[in-house]
Every structure is written in C-alpha cells, then in structure tokens.
Amino acid sequence: DCKANEECIVYNGKCATACEAMSIASCSGSSRCQVSNNSGTLSCSTQCGLKYTTKGPCDQDTKCMWDQDKDSCRSACAEINTDNNPTLSGAQVREACVQVGQCGWVNNACRQKCQYAHTAQQSCDNDAECAWDTSAQGCRTKCSVIPGETTCLANTMCEWQQEQTKCITKCEFA
After folding, report:
1. Do the beta carbons of residue 37 and residue 83 sit within 8 Å?
2. Total-model pTM
C-alpha cells in the first residue's frame, strides 16, 4: 500500500517516491520536486506549485512566492541560484531568473522585482536596491543598480548616461 510507506506519495493516481525521500540527483531531474539549500545542506522538497494552490499559504513559505501574473505558487526568486540548480551554469541560472516575470537579476543574484516585493513606501525606501516612484505611487528598481540600457530606459525614473555607460535617476526623481 503506497500510503503505508512514508517515503511514498500518490501522484497522478500512481505511487511515487516522495520528493523529501529523493537523492539530490533524482530531485534535480524531477518535474515535481525542487532542490533547496538550507545553510549549505541540500534537500529535496515538493515544488511550490504542487504544494500550495492559494496565495496565503504560498507567501508564508519563504522558499515560495505567489505569481500574480499566473495566479499560482512558484519558487521564490532567491531560490533560483546555482546552489539549488547544480546542473545549471551561472549564465543559465541568470536566464532562468529573468524568465520569471516577477524576478530580476541584480548584483549577481535573482531577486523579486521591487514593484512586486514592496507595496508600501516605507518598505520600499528601506530596501537599498529600490526607490519609491512618487508619480506612479509604486516601488521601482533603483536606477544605479540597473545594468543595461534597455532595462534602464524601461524604468520611467531612469535615464541612460551613454558616456559613462550607466543608468542614473532623472532629476525630477532624485
């Protein structure tokens, strides 16, 4: 009996090995599991989207975040890294990060974009990589941490300084 064995679960009507009982190699290859790095110790757990179907419980799990664009739970941006994805190169992890609409690559790490991470001015202002947009009443990525011209120009608070090849804050927002 599948349910009698604590290392097994019923998945899609069949008995399968629980993610928590898998090796890291098996976990990395499983579409229903995710590798997590807990203070240097790798472990395997069920993917956020299978574990949670509503926003509240999803947001309470620090390894997960609610994707409002897809109305589903997914791995938090910070979980997209080479430690949790040992089969991916640094460039592949960066690409995986920017493919998620709510995530951005800032200072060589995947993090939730400011407009999703902060809905109040105080928490936005307390984040060193974010700035409050007074005209739009929303949190934006600080111009100084934006790496390229295209991304810079997509932020209404920023302008690209060609001579120094850097993104700067427009005077009206400084």
Report:
1. yes
2. 0.77
Residue 36, both tokens: 């997590």
- Distance, in Å, from the CA atom of 22 to the CA atom of 35, rounded to the nearest integer, reads 10
And the tokens for 82?
């080479």
Which residues in 57-70 are b (16+ Cβ under 10 Å) and which e? ebeeeebbbbbeee
Per-residue pLDDT of the chain (174 residues; tens, 9 = 90+): 787 888 999 888 899 999 999 998 898 888 899 888 877 788 899 999 999 999 999 999 999 999 988 899 999 999 998 888 877 889 999 999 999 989 988 888 999 999 999 999 999 999 999 999 988 899 999 999 888 899 899 988 999 998 889 999 999 888
Coil, strand or helix: which one is 146? coil
Q: If you ran DSSP here, which 8-state letter would residue 148 be given?
A: S
* Rounded Cα–Cα distance for residues 87 and 97 (Å): 15
Burial class (CB in 10 A: 0-12, 13-18, 19+), 141: buried
Q: Which residue has the tokens 């739009």?
A: 136
Q: What angle do CA 172, 173, 174 make, to 5 degrees?
A: 100
